[in-house]
Design brief:
By secondary structure, the protein is an alpha/beta fold. It has 15 helices and twelve strands. The relative contact order is 0.13. Bound molecules: pyridoxal-5'-phosphate.
């Protein structure tokens, strides 16, 4: 017979149970360490998966009739680490960060307490941390913390969704009961994250009512096109409810101009006598650069190099206006350096959350009692994990300066990467030159062709698709070597017009996304050599890439 109690933390804090627990943790951490190799991007060799890999897993697994014992469980957990990607200096594939120690400690504390962030009676630690981090981030971006509010939620996706719920509720407080009117419209840049697409589908607005606004040369929303598209909608009897301003796009870090967008919505509201249109800054990724909002760029206390400083100033130009948005998001599991899932949704006018709240009658087992006042009836989730604890731990440990250092380093290594790329591999051209930040998107061109001409719309659809095909082959080849240097790729970094059709054609590009705290400028040259080698492999393969 198993002693079931031994599977739990102790009830009384006795030393023996603690030491058993700690020895299991020690085993997990040391097994991880044994697999680490700073020159690889995986823990041990990459796993090959056969075609029916997942099918076999399904066949082989059932619940054991007797528990296997904790040593065996830990053994199996450490096996899961084998071949797992790991965030060493050559890990530059996407915004997939290493969880920092304070982030892990916060999450761990949260797991030990295992409160429910639904209600402060059940999860006081998370409730307190949530209030703290909402205030901390509000002050950082320039919201009035006495008015703003927020909560942790299911990703940047959840924030875009929650913003839309609010947007609808603000203009149509009875939509909750009556359903959503059928003439509502949402707007976002063609380079926006697909979170909005899923959200308009889910709330029943319908994806045909999602207007994709053109992006300009710097990949940010073309605000003139926004004005035109919104005007069209209004004059045809539609009601604009929601504009998503992407402030740091995932594939090329285009930053929409929140100030200009706000001017347009305000002007149109006056002109057509409309209710305020909710603007959500999708700052899930880029919002962290608001850590530079009060950086003294003149005195430059952290002594950033000139080009890094210039890059940061450029990002700051746009990020300083974040507070004009009605809501925003911080994906701490991205540039906030905490484990999944730690997204924070912030709302400028916290009171508006009442519009989403549910009646006490409908929530019989939680809610307002004399001894519990913090009940998150307005979130779409019922039970909620206390991810604010990890966020709080990270904010405390890094401080503004720590974040400024790591965020500036992303700019630094991207500048170095771009410089070396231009010098050593001119056929690989940067397609997001105007966007400095954590990511560089670069595209392979056959002899004689180039990004400038392609962006200007001078190539035929066939030519663009041919270049996309070439890049797809290149992604396959660099992807095979991902345990050495793990680059990313995207099939649509933006779209371009063609010289012979009316189509806008997606542009595929490889991605250098600096995210590891260990990536430094000294590592860039080896990555360029890796790319040069892979270009030779591509050339030697049968793909005709010269013409
Ligand atoms: C990552 C990202 C999202 C989606 O966030 P999840 O946390 O993955 O749900 C939305 N918008 C932007 C700009 C992002 O970078």
């Amino acid at each position: 017979m198993q002693n079931i109690q031994q599977l739990f933390q102790s009830e009384d804090g006795n030393i023996q149970q603690r030491e058993n627990f700690l020895s299991l943790l020690e085993k997990i951490v040391s097994s991880l360490d044994e697999l680490k190799d700073p020159n690889k991007t995986t823990l041990g060799p990459m796993k090959e998966r056969s075609a029916n890999f997942y099918q076999e897993l399904m066949q082989e697994h059932q619940v054991p009739s007797t528990g296997v014992g904790l040593d065996q469980v830990v053994e199996e957990l450490t096996q899961l680490m084998q071949g797992h990607p790991y965030h060493t200096h050559n890990f530059v594939t996407n915004v997939l960060p290493m969880a920092s120690i304070p982030g892990v400690l916060g999450q761990f504390t949260n797991a030990l307490l295992n409160g429910n962030n639904l209600w402060d009676v059940y999860g006081p630690a998370a409730a307190e941390c949530e209030v703290k981090v909402v205030a901390m981030m509000s002050k950082l971006v320039g919201y009035d913390y006495t008015k703003s509010f927020g909560y942790t939620t299911w990703g940047g996706q959840g924030a875009v969704f929650s913003g839309l719920r609010l947007a609808i509720a603000k203009q149509f407080p009875h939509a909750k009961e009556d359903g959503v009117p059928n003439n509502l419209y949402c707007f976002a840049s063609e380079n926006a994250h697909y979170s909005l697409l899923k959200s308009v589908e889910a709330v029943g607005i319908g994806s045909k009512h999602l207007v994709r606004v053109k992006a300009g040369k710097d990949h940010s929303m073309d605000v003139e096109d926004l004005r035109i598209r919104m005007t069209e909608v209004i004059e045809n009897g539609g009601i604009p409810v929601y504009v998503v301003a992407t402030t740091g796009a995932t594939d090329q870090f285009g930053i929409d101009d929140v100030q200009a967008i706000k001017e347009i919505t305000t002007t149109l509201e006056k002109k057509y006598d409309l209710q305020p249109v909710h603007i959500h800054a999708d700052s899930a990724l880029g919002g962290f650069y608001a850590f530079f909002n009060d950086y003294d760029f003149k005195k430059n206390p952290l002594q950033f190099e000139d080009n890094v400083l210039q890059g940061l100033v450029q990002i700051h130009e746009r990020m300083q206006h974040l507070a004009l948005a009605d809501s925003m998001c911080f994906d701490f599991q991205k540039l906030g350096q905490t484990p999944y899932l730690t997204s924070l949704f912030l709302i400028k006018d916290g009171k508006s959350l009442q519009l989403l709240d549910i009646e006490d009658f409908d929530t019989p087992y939680v809610g307002n009692r004399g001894y519990g006042s913090y009940h998150t009836g307005y979130t779409l989730e019922c039970s909620r994990m206390g991810s604010s604890i990890a966020i709080f731990a990270a904010l405390q440990a890094f401080g503004k300066e720590g974040y400024q250092q790591i965020l500036a380093n992303y700019v630094r290594v991207n500048l170095a990467f771009r410089a070396q790329l231009a010098e050593k591999t001119p056929m690989l051209q940067v397609v997001n030159e105007a966007n400095i930040g954590p990511v560089t998107a670069f595209r392979l061109y056959p002899d004689g062709l180039n990004w400038q001409a392609e962006q200007a719309g001078r190539y035929t659809q066939d030519q663009i698709e041919h270049i996309n095909g070439l890049n797809a082959s290149f992604f396959e080849i660099i992807g095979e070597g991902r345990d050495e240097v793990f680059f990313g790729d995207t099939t649509r970094v933006c779209t371009v017009s063609t010289s012979d059709t009316t189509q806008h054609v997606p542009v595929a590009a490889a991605k250098f996304f600096s995210i590891s705290p260990y990536t430094e400028t000294d590592h860039i040259l080896d990555m360029i050599h890796f790319l040069q080698h892979k270009l030779k492999v591509l050339e030697a393969s049968h793909i005709a890439y010269r013409h």
